[in-house]
Design a protein that fits this description.
single chain, about 80 residues, mainly alpha
Length: about 80
């Protein structure tokens, strides 16, 4: 992928999403692939794509917790 054609907001979104998924994985003792699949299955990725700009201003702990809550509300395990 040629990142020179991406605008700054898209690059920032990609960077944040690439950062927060491993943080989620670590917090809930998953590997990165499991975390990605869990977030995708329970709508956490949808929430992340739509709200990354707000989540990135928050403490990482709370951003990960918000993702967990969204997944839980969509059928994820407690």
């Amino acid at each position: 992928m040629n990142t020179a054609t991406l605008d700054k907001e898209t690059k920032d979104a990609i960077n944040y999403i690439a950062f927060i998924i491993p943080e989620f994985a670590t917090a809930y003792k998953m590997d990165i692939v499991q975390a990605y699949q869990y977030l995708k299955k329970y709508k956490g990725l949808d929430y992340l794509y739509e709200n990354w700009w707000a989540l990135h201003t928050d403490n990482t702990f709370w951003a990960v917790r918000d993702l967990y809550e969204i997944c839980y509300r969509n059928g994820g395990m407690r």
